[in-house]
Specification:
The complex is a heterodimer of chains A (415) and B (209). With 415 residues, chain A is of the alpha/beta class. Chain A has one domain: TIM Barrel, CATH 3.20.20.210. Chain A has helices at residues 8-16, 33-37, 43-46, 52-65, 81-91, 123-145, 153-159, 164-172, 174-194, 208-216, 218-253, 279-299, 337-344, 356-361, 364-378, 398-410, and strands spanning 71-74, 97-98, 113-114, 198-206, 264-269, 304-308, 327-331, 349-354, 384-388. In chain A, strands 1-4-5-6-7-8-9 form a 7-stranded parallel beta sheet, with helices on both faces. A two-stranded antiparallel sheet of chain A has the order 2-3. In chain A, helix 6 packs across helix 11 and helix 15 (364-378) runs parallel beside helix 16 (398-410). The two termini of chain A are 15 Å apart. Chain B has 209 residues and is α/β, with parallel strands linked by helices. Chain B folds into 2 domains: 3-79, Methyltransferase, Methionine Synthase (B12-binding Domains), Chain A, domain 1; 86-208, Rossmann fold. Chain B is built from 9 helices and 5 strands. Chain B has helices at 3-9, 13-25, 30-49, 55-79, 99-110, 124-134, 148-161, 179-185, 194-208, and strands spanning 86-91, 114-117, 138-142, 169-173, 189-191. In chain B, strands 2-1-3-4-5 form a 5-stranded parallel beta sheet, sandwiched between helices. In chain B, helix 3 (30-49) packs antiparallel against helix 4. The longest helix of chain B has 25 residues, at 55-79. The radius of gyration of chain B is 18 Å and the shape is globular. The mean pLDDT of chain B is 93. The chains are: A alpha/beta (415), B alpha/beta (209). Chains A and B meet through strand 3, helix 11 and helix 14 of A and helix 4 and helix 8 of B.
Chain lengths: 415, 209
């Protein structure tokens, strides 16, 4: 029988700091999709701000029902997506995302999806170079709020599938939205803690290269690299400091770093991996910016979770250039976590990486076998937070989810 | 390898356009130009297999090929050409992600397949109807989300119900597709790698011809 000697928070911090723990902690990367779906509620409701409190309560109830967790990966991005959603839409950054219940392109029962379309022109690179990222966003926001909005192409690019009237209202109340998001964040953070759950990350963002790739499309951005690499590089140079500082400002506004560095900052990285680009491109257009941001955040005392979607196996050695025990590597199951662990053992904590297909279509045995291997190999002694590759799928089978949550006790391997 | 094939394999966009213009201007038949381009695309595939090229090089070569086809296509029909293996491809019902599907479709065209790209969020019936209409022998289904696996399974089941299952090979693809998903859906193959998908389809085509 496993004797637990640490609190949930102590266990998470031990994993991140690469210190011995009594067992591997578990923190599902969850939003309200699975908790709502298993209760017969639509995914559209899981992304509707008016059900934010339900998102929290249903997720909390699930944590208790399934045997208790050590942490949630994000304080408000998940499961309190609605607030985060309002915040990000207010900033007008991710116009290609389509949300259930808000877009005719996807059903009310779908997870959010990204519509690959051109949201930024080639000329906009020059504007970013001239104004910086913050200046670019400000200018486009001003333009969209001004009289010429009706005819301004940027307005439509950043308005996404929100009606013009709604988008204008959203932009006008940006400060209000940010303030509300911070207030909600602090409230949720306290709620999680009151219920015995630690929080890994408080702020969610994407890396500069991925931002441009989303705005230009993968094809468009890749051709830009081929045709005008210097211009792309100059734009990335003009973006990185603003993006770094914005994350710090956001976190500092919400109370600043704790002694442990948690909650930290989560950066989603997808389109710069070795699955897409060779190392020459990675070293020039991707890695310098991720590294610069992580180092700046570490200097401020924040731990960074690098949420790696797609296969980053080839890129893993670069993480050694980041400070030891200040980064969480969160692969989505396509990166070979076992190879990555061989490279980064004793340097970087891992969070992951149960494959989505096992959660949704596997058996309990397949789930247990995978978790056991992960716990015994990657989690031995320290350095693993058991979690999901990418996120808990909405169609996860209850028995598989339960098996995953219980595996940290069943296959316990502490110090 | 010809100069045109090499230029495409080396991703020399302007050079490819210039050579095509020259060759067509001097009366070379467009089918011959297309054959050279396909050799270039084959070389891109070889370099990818060797680890010299990555997905980005597949994208760039695909874009260069697509631009070349815009020049060639108006003249290709009158030049004719042999029958090509037909592939019906699409992102399944409930899923609007198109990146992987588009890359595979372009690469398949690049190596000589006749591709019917049904787009995104494709209903089960649309796959079946297109197979009936075109007599395609290969179906490729793409999806990024786990609920897409059910749409893939429903499509395979519908092909069975229509009596077409033993006439078509089915491949599924996507970032989180695994062998487990292949078993669940009843597909013949799976891949999370665009070029590997093309190779599987090429092998199927070679066996049936």
């Amino acid at each position: 029988m496993l004797r637990e000697t640490m609190t949930t928070e102590e266990r998470i911090i031990a994993a991140v700091k690469l210190q011995p723990y009594d067992r591997v902690p578990v923190a599902p990367h969850i939003n309200a999709e699975y908790p709502f779906r298993r209760k017969g509620r639509s995914l559209a409701e899981a992304y509707d701000p008016k059900y934010a409190e339900d998102c929290f309560q249903e997720t909390l109830a699930l944590s208790k029902e399934s045997g208790g967790w050590d942490a949630v990966t994000l304080a408000y991005g998940a499961p309190l997506y609605p607030e985060a959603l309002a915040f990000y839409r207010g900033r007008g950054q991710l116009g290609g995302y389509r949300y259930p219940g808000r877009s005719a392109m996807i059903s009310r029962e779908s997870s959010p999806q990204y519509e690959e379309k051109t949201l930024m022109s080639i000329e906009d690179y020059d504007l970013i170079i001239k104004l910086g990222w913050r200046g670019f966003l400000k200018k486009t926001s001003e333009e969209t709020g001004a009289e010429q909005a009706d005819t301004n192409a940027r307005w439509r690019r950043f308005a996404g599938d929100t009606s013009e009237k709604q988008a204008r209202a959203s932009l006008e109340s940006r400060t209000e939205i940010a303030t509300r998001a911070t207030k909600n964040y602090l409230g949720r953070l306290a709620s999680w803690k009151q219920n015995g759950l630690a929080v890994v990350a408080g702020h969610l963002m994407i890396d500069p290269q991925m931002m441009l790739s989303l705005l230009r499309t993968l094809h468009g951005f890749t051709m830009d690299l081929h045709r005008m690499g210097d211009k792309v590089k100059a734009a990335l140079d003009a973006m990185v400091d603003d993006m770094t500082e914005d994350a710090i400002k956001c976190m500092n506004a919400a109370g600043g770093p704790s002694a442990s560095g948690l909650p930290g900052i989560m950066m989603a990285c997808e389109r710069g991996s070795g699955q897409y680009y060779n190392l020459k491109i990675f070293e020039k257009y991707v890695w310098p910016y991720i590294k610069k941001m992580v180092l700046a955040w570490a200097k401020e005392g924040y731990v960074t979770t690098l949420h790696f979607d797609t296969d980053w196996t080839l890129n893993m050695p670069y993480l050694k250039e980041l400070p030891r025990a200040m980064v969480i590597c969160e692969p989505d199951s396509t990166t070979d976590i076992f190879k990555a662990h061989e490279i980064l053992k004793g340097h970087t904590c891992f969070m992951g990486d149960v494959p989505p297909s096992i959660s949704s279509h596997g058996t309990v045995k397949e789930m247990e076998d995978y978790c056991e291997k992960l716990i015994q190999v990657v989690g031995k002694g320290t350095g693993l937070i058991l979690s999901n590759g990418c996120a808990v799928p909405p169609d996860t089978k209850d028995e598989n989810f339960w098996a995953m949550m219980n595996s940290v006790k069943k296959f316990a391997t502490g110090s | 390898m010809s100069e045109l094939s090499s230029a495409l394999a080396n991703l020399e966009e302007e050079k490819v356009a210039r050579i095509i213009k020259q060759e067509l201007g001097t009366g070379k038949d467009s089918m011959g130009v297309l054959t050279e381009l396909r050799k270039g695309m084959d070389e891109v595939g070889q370099r990818y297999k060797k680890g010299e090229y990555f997905l980005s090089e597949l994208i760039v070569s695909g874009e260069i090929f697509k631009d070349a086809m815009k020049v060639l296509e108006p003249t290709l029909k009158k030049d004719g050409g042999g029958p090509a293996t037909k592939v019906v491809i699409g992102t399944v019902k409930g899923d609007i992600h198109n990146i992987g599907k588009d890359i595979v479709a372009t690469l398949l065209k690049g190596v000589g397949f006749e591709v019917y790209d049904l787009g995104i969020d494709v209903p089960v019936k649309a796959f079946v109807d297109k197979v009936v209409e075109t007599k395609a022998t290969i179906v490729g289904m793409s999806g990024l989300l786990t609920p897409s696996f059910e749409s893939m399974k429903e499509t395979v089941d519908a092909l069975k119900e229509a009596g077409l299952r033993n006439k078509v090979k089915v491949i599924i693809g996507g970032g989180v597709v695994t062998e487990l998903v292949q078993r669940h859906t009843g597909a013949d193959a799976f891949t999370d790698d665009a070029m590997e998908g093309v190779e599987i389809i090429k092998k199927w085509s070679a066996k049936s011809n």
